[in-house]
Design goal:
Elements (H helix, E strand, L loop, with lengths): L3 E4 L1 H17 L2 H13 L12 E2 L10 E6 L2 E8 L4 E9 L12
Parallel strand pairs: 1-5
Antiparallel strand pairs: 2-3, 3-4, 4-5
Length: 105
């Protein structure tokens, strides 16, 4: 059985922040293309949920967080077996302070 991909609130907020930033600094077209690329990079993850590398910065957490990469963004997720879904927990810009990844829920 395939898992459902579910975006948590923090990850959705990050997408909105990225869109807002790039729509002002570049253009709406650039912002849309970037957001679509991030979202599209999760296509197929429901069939191969363990395809992403383990996020070592979050090893101390109860869940095993993994990530996919799109450009300079890590799409951080974990497999929630109880709800039979993959939860996208964060979209992390790798150019920022690495400790900020700990805000992942």
């Amino acid at each position: 059985m395939e898992l459902e991909v579910y975006w948590l609130e923090l990850a959705e907020n990050k997408l909105e922040d990225i869109y807002s930033y790039y729509s002002i600094k570049a253009s709406k077209r650039v912002a849309e293309k970037l957001i679509n690329g991030i979202v599209d990079s999760t296509i197929g993850i429901e069939k191969q949920p363990e395809i992403g590398q383990v996020e070592t910065s979050l090893k101390h957490r109860e869940q095993e967080f993994r990530y996919l990469v799109f450009k300079n963004y890590k799409i951080v997720y974990w497999i929630n077996d109880d709800f039979k879904r993959i939860e996208i927990a964060n979209v992390f810009d790798t150019r920022q302070d690495p400790d900020k990844i700990n805000e992942t829920k």
